Amino acid sequence: MSDFPPRPTPEQAAEMRRRRRGRNVAMLVVLLALAALFYAIAMVRLAGH
Amino acid sequence: MPDARGVEAAALGVAGAEIRDWIVLLKPRVVALVVFTGLVGLLVAPGHLNPVLAVTAILCIAVAAGAAGAINMWYERDIDALMRRTARRPIPAGRIEPGEALAYGVTLAAGSVIVMFLATNVVAAGLLALSIVFYVFVYTIWLKRRTPQNIVIGGAAGAFPPLIGWAAVTGSVGWMPLLLFAIIFCWTPPHFWSLSLFAHADYQRAGVPMLPVVAGARETRRQVMAYTLVLVPLSLLPWMLGETGPVYGFAAAALGLGFLVCAWRVLRDRQDAAGVSLTRDAPAKAAFRYSLLYLAVLFLALAVDRFVR
Q1: How far apart are CA B83 and CA B26, in angstroms?
Q2: Residue B10 lies in a domain
Q3: Yes or no, beta carbons of A15 and B11 under 8 Å apart
Q4: Which is the most buried residue in A32, B147, B175, B305, by most CB within 10 A?
Q5: Do B154 and B252 sit in the same domain of this protein?
Q6: What was the pLDDT predicted at B9?
Q7: Domains in chain B, number
Q8: Region of B272 on the Ramachandran plot (φ > 0 left; ψ -120 to 50 alpha; else beta)
Q9: In a domain, B98, yes or no
Q10: pLDDT 10s digits, B162-214
């Protein structure tokens, strides 16, 4: 009986993990940057009032 | 049995997209020019905007342009797969799912408009939303596959950034930003039609009715010249109306003269009876490269002029 969907080879699995880690790190950076941006906007807006 | 390329594509599909693919989806080269013209609109506007809010406004313009680009790539994935220039994009190459790209684009588009509203004002946020809607619905979905005038009317989408930058500072729209809008609007046809003169085989294969495909290369060369003849005096108007100083006036005149020379060379390109270039469209390639330089230096001159006056 054949695998469907095909099981990834060890190399493909390692590559998959590497890319997933990259995407997760990028998402973390974007979320932290967004939090910092909202904080900065709020501070500037509050200072204006 | 799958060939080597099929196996490679399947492996890439299993591994998922790289960060680079998500960045490519935002059309970074287009975003760079959009950000620059938006920044100049913000710099030349009368008044003051807190640097944090100014950076946020530029970020929003960049993200919105990228989001519109991602939605464009989602909609055009079928024709992108047919064109050599675009076949390696993440969606036709199978590295990103179409639905993921659409969700990514819509989320970024909505986020950029909301943040623009929170950081600046409703006029800038409204114009930003309008520019996205115009690019996605008017250009990409409605006009691009229907008429050779697609890039003329659709070019308005790319002309919004200086207007948005100006509105972010002033909360309104005046004559000067409308002139900047008009300059980019008239710059778009000679820019894109120069490109389409040497990339028309791609457009033909994909069934996109670009002007050289529908009306022929000879008519396209005439139109490049005609729009350049409108663009050059228009670019001088801000100086003639006293809105800018001599730095901009001199730059606009010199750059315009260069553009006219390029357009003239395109018009007079050696061609056969059917209008096909005998020089491999060398003048059109030169005009395309020059058009990019033209817009960047013209807006740079505008910013410099503002600070030396």
Answers
A1: 19
A2: no
A3: yes
A4: B305
A5: no
A6: 46
A7: 2
A8: beta
A9: yes
A10: 999 999 999 999 899 999 999 999 999 999 999 999 988 888 888 888 898 88
Please answer yes or no on whether B15 and A15 come within 8 Å at the CB atom: yes
User: Does residue B203 share a domain with residue B91?
Assistant: no
Query: Which segments in chain B show pLDDT lower than 50?
Result: 1-11, 14
- pTM to 2 decimals? 0.87
Mutate to test the interface with B, among A15, A20, A49 (most CBs of B within 10 A): A15
Q: Same domain, yes or no, for B188 and B296?
A: yes
Based on the domain organization, do B166 and B247 belong to the same domain? no
Half-sphere CA count of B109, side-chain side, radius 13 A: 23
Burial of B309 (0-12, 13-18, 19+ CB in 10 A): exposed
B245: amino acid identity, one letter: G
Q: Does any domain span residue B3?
A: no
Q: Are residues B233 and B167 in the same domain?
A: no
Residues present in chain B in total: 309
Residue A2 has which token pair?
């054949």
The whole-number pLDDT of residue A3 equals 66
Nearest to B66 by CA among B161, B155, B193: B161
Helix axes B28-44, B175-206, angle to 10 degrees: 170
- B127 and B214 fall within a common domain: no
Q: Which CATH number fits the domain that encloses residue B166?
A: 1.10.357.140
Name the residue facing A19 among B18, B56, B59 (closest C-beta): B18
Of A8, A45, A48, which is closest to B14 when you measure between CB atoms?
A8
Q: Which domain holds residue B81?
A: 17-173
3-state secondary structure (DSSP) of residue B45: coil
**What ipTM was predicted for this assembly?**
0.78
Evaluate whether residue B202 is within a structural domain.
yes
Between chains, do A22 and B118 touch, taking CB under 8 Å as contact? no
Whether residue A36 lies within 8 A of chain B, CB to CB, comes out as no
Give the number of other CB atoms < 10 A from CB of residue B236.
17
A1-49 pLDDT per residue, tens? 556 777 888 888 888 888 889 889 999 999 999 999 999 999 998 987 6
Q: Check if the beta carbon of residue B24 is closer than 8 Å to that of residue B73.
A: no
pLDDT at position B15 is: 61
